[in-house]
Specification:
The chain is of the alpha+beta class. It is built from 4 helices and 4 strands. It folds into 2 domains: 105 residues; 103 residues, ATP synthase, E subunit, C-terminal (hypothetical protein PF0899 fold), CATH 3.30.2320. Helices cover 71% and strands 9% of the residues. A 4-stranded mixed β-sheet has the order 2-1-3-4. One of its GO terms (molecular function) is proton-transporting ATPase activity, rotational mechanism.
């Protein structure tokens, strides 16, 4: 009996040990599982937080980039509008000059127009400096110019000491749509000079345009070179 009791006691202790060890192992497993769960949860939250931050950072960059693009478009359009307005102002200014030139050739201003024609013909002759020169004018200016020819030739001779023969072309005329003036050329047509009022206006516009812009709109801050 004593041997059996001793066996049962040892068996009971062994069962208790196994149960206790099982409980401890189970607790360790629970702790490890809980720790692993929290690690996974923390990793998931960190990953999710990073993804959210990345999303909003990209969204902010995209938004800022769009703002830069929009501002650039606004500035470009504003610059174009300013340039267009300036061109309009300058065009209106020269249109007014063109209108005054047109009025100059009207019949009521014939005395002033005669003086202009005289100077244009003389200027052309002094530039060409040839003994024989042909001139063309508008058909409606022929009568005026014929009366000026002797006066121009005499004045030319007085200034240069050179005798010149000026021939008025009766077969070819300047366009009536133009604002008058004169075209001069040698008989061989090797030298030709356009001294019409329209051409003069274009030349003057090209020469004085920078000064006109400066007078109307001030210095251009982007201009690096000056004549």
């Amino acid at each position: 009996m004593a041997g059996r009791d001793d066996y049962e006691l040892r068996l009971q202790k062994m069962v208790q040990y196994i149960e206790q060890d099982g409980h401890e192992k189970a607790e360790e497993i629970d702790v490890m599982a809980e720790e692993e769960f929290f690690k996974e949860k923390l990793s998931y939250e960190e990953t999710r937080t990073e993804a959210v931050k990345k999303y909003y950072n990209n969204l902010e960059k995209k938004y800022q980039h769009q703002i830069v693009l929009d501002m650039s478009k606004i500035k470009t359009q504003a610059h174009r509008d300013i340039l267009a307005t300036r061109h309009t102002v300058i065009d209106e200014l020269f249109d007014a000059v063109q209108s005054r030139i047109t009025n100059l050739t009207l019949e009521e201003n014939v005395c002033l127009y005669k003086k202009v024609l005289f100077k244009l013909i003389l200027q052309g002759l002094l530039k060409i400096m040839e003994p024989d020169v042909v001139i063309e004018v508008r058909k409606k200016d022929v009568t005026i110019v014929k009366k000026l020819l002797k006066q121009v030739q005499d004045y030319f001779h007085e200034k240069t000491g050179m005798t010149i023969n000026v021939l008025l072309n009766d077969n070819s005329f300047l366009s009536e749509k133009g604002n008058g003036g004169v075209i001069l050329y040698t008989k061989s047509k090797s030298i030709r000079l356009d001294n019409t009022l329209d051409t003069k206006l274009i030349l003057v516009r090209n020469v004085i345009l920078p000064n006109v812009r400066k007078a109307l709109f001030g210095e251009n801050p982007n201009r690096r070179h000056f004549d």
